[in-house]
Amino acid sequence: MTRALIIDTDPSPDDAVTFLTALAAPELFELLAVTTVAGNVPLDLTTKNALKALELAGRTDIPVYAGASAPLVRPLITAEYVHGHTGFDGYDLPDPVAKPAAGFAPEAIVEMVMSRPKGTVTICALAPLTNIALAMAREPRLAEHLAEIVIMGGALSEGGNVTPAAEFNIYVDPEAAARVFTSGANLTLIPLDCTHQARTTAARLERLRAKGTKLAEVFYHLLSFNKRFDEQKYGWDGGPLHDPTTLVWLMHPEFFPNGRRVNVTVETGSPDTLGMTIIDWWSVTGKPANALVLRDIDAEGYMTTIIDRLGRL
Ligand code: RIB
Ligand code: CA
After folding, report:
1. What atom of ligand 1 comes closest to residue 128's alpha carbon?
2. Which atom of ligand 1 is nearest to the CA of 242?
């Protein structure tokens, strides 16, 4: 029985690795659609990058729905300083031939989820949560109808990667995140504390390149460019491969031990801590748990899974 999946994303390379890995695991996933949102780069570029990656994999059958071009209430903040002007710097892929599917991503999400039996569709949310919040506003039953939303975002004790307090996906649209975390949906959150442990080291990128396929070569270069910022900032060998953790959690939950169901809230007021995820890891607030938070990861098992799967495309 395959899991029906929607991937909401703002492609930079780690986003694209997520939906490509899903396509390389057809025995596990039916990828219903890729939905794009403004985030790492503006919407026209995140949408173009999604189309480029699917074209590279020969999977233009997967619909790409474009969504929100800005957060719910704040101006868009992008991250070209990490991902380059295009969001896909490092390898010059041709402009896509395929076009986005007709329709607004939040509406498409509602239609895909509500037209299937309750508890059968999962969303991997790899970007600011604007599309998800809009879909929930459009269809109040969405949260309870979904099987699960697996979110890459936030930080427990790692600190933020945009401000000292906030991680990028949450920081760009904190109101959307607050909406999702209070929705009652079945949520799994994978914060920086987890993703920072799983890095694209030089050795791992060489293992990817050694797969010898065109796609492996392209992502060798895209990921090699993409890791520079974090290597310079943190002094690491490699950069965190953030977003595919959401998918590999669904494939190999054993790679993510010691998760806890706890209360998570999102700061939407204070200018200094805007977008902070307040994760009650020790349950001191007495607030009800609203998310499973994953902090530990078998980084080698995770990266080997990614490399092996990408090598099949
Ligand atoms: O903070 C990490 C997140 O921001 C990831 O989703 C990465 O793709 C960037 O969007
Ligand atoms: Ca992302």
Report:
1. 10
2. 5
CATH number of the domain bearing residue 259: 3.90.245.10
Query: For residue 277, with 0-12 CB atoms within 10 Å meaning exposed, 13-18 middle and 19 or more buried, which class applies?
Result: buried
To the nearest whole percent, how much of the chain has pLDDT over 90? 100
Tokens of 102: 């007709």
Distance 284 CA to ligand 2 centre (A): 31
Total domains in the fold of the chain: 1
DSSP state of 239: -
The finding on whether 152 has its CB within 6 A of some atom of ligand 1 is: yes
Q: Write down the pLDDT at residue 1.
A: 86
Q: Is 151 in the pocket of ligand 1 (CB under 6 A)?
A: no
Assess whether pLDDT exceeds 90 at residue 251: yes
Ligand found nearest the CA of 36: 2
Q: What value does the mean pLDDT of the chain take?
A: 98
Dihedrals phi, psi of 59, to nearest 5 degrees:
-125, 55
Ligand 1 neighbour 243 (Cβ under 6 A): yes
Answer yes or no: is the C-beta of 7 below 6 A from any ligand 1 atom: no
Annotated catalytic residues are 242
- Specify the residue with its C-alpha closest to ligand 1, atom 1: 168
- Cα-to-chain-centroid distance, residue 91: 21
Q: Which listed ligand is nearest to 241 at the C-alpha?
A: 1
pTM, two decimal places: 0.99
Rounded to an integer, the average pLDDT of 4-12 is 98
Q: Give the domain extent around 58.
A: 3-310
pLDDT band at 294 (very low <50, low <70, confident <90, very high): very high
